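Hello again,

I reread your note about wanting to compare the complex against the isolated chains. To keep things tidy I'm splitting this into two emails, and this first one only covers the full assembly. Below are the input lines as submitted, including protein chains and any nucleic acid or small-molecule components. They are followed by the predicted structure of everything together. The single-chain runs will come separately.
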Amino acid sequence: MIVKAGRDAWRLLLDLFLEGEPHDRMHEVACEVGLSPGLLKALVDLPGRGTRMSDLAGHWGCDASYVTSVADALEARGFVERAPHPTDRRAKSLVVTPEGTATLEHVFSLLYEPPRAFGELSAAEQRQLRDLVRKLIEADQKVLPAEVAEVRSS
Amino acid sequence: MIVKAGRDAWRLLLDLFLEGEPHDRMHEVACEVGLSPGLLKALVDLPGRGTRMSDLAGHWGCDASYVTSVADALEARGFVERAPHPTDRRAKSLVVTPEGTATLEHVFSLLYEPPRAFGELSAAEQRQLRDLVRKLIEADQKVLPAEVAEVRSS
DNA sequence: TATTGTTATACTCTATAACTATA
DNA sequence: TATAGTTATAGAGTATAACAATA
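Full-complex prediction:
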């Protein structure tokens, strides 16, 4: 059951992400590595080797033709390469180059750097927060499939 | 000082907002009220009565000409109206109409509805989470001005 | 002369439709 | 005939530059 404190917690969390220091993190990181936010998101969200470009469209929730232009842009920067599908000669997949991997590592090191405000919490409080968010994520993963089932049955 | 648990907490929080149920909240709400995400953000982020359009450009971090088109779009839907500045006849401000206010209330009621995962936390845990995030926001507000000062001095 | 909001124009992001090669 | 990726084209979103009114 969600109590008032829970509602307040969510609201505060939302405020933190919509207005505070964390807000522009994705945008800053994109600038830093010279990619548009959309291209950065694509690079970060690239599934493992062997995924067809057509499946990427589904994964990203965009049109197939847009996958082509994203692939062109990332390839032009040397971050990915097109690779042929082993058995289906119509299909291609995108593989991350060493340069792309290095960029991704840089991206994550920037993205995962906590906002300074975290330093104002005691070590015990940081542990508490980690445990609570972990629980939330586990619950989220439990809840999501249930929602999919709901949509299917309606 | 930020300890490992704090880093993990931030990383988990980021995962929650980038991938979990909360991720598409803004987008869903925009659909629900028939605004593009950009227009919704503008409406939500509209400062109080009397703010000049030129100041909105600074506030939103966009060009002044874009403020004009945002104003046109929101005015076309009846959510805001242009009002003359009391003393400077060059300037105008945007005021939210009753219809705009009603829409905003609807928007916030949707936005502030906690993800279902919150219900998996006990009442005590929800209170704990609220207190921690509250602390984080207070620290964030303390940290932000310091950063502005840094930028100024560099 | 500088500033406010607007217009005209152009560039980026993303989608739709038509096309080529392969299944 | 259907599917994979591409191309051509069009629509949003956003910026730059030139403009009219006012300060």
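For quick reference: DSSP finds seven helices and two strands in chain A.

B.
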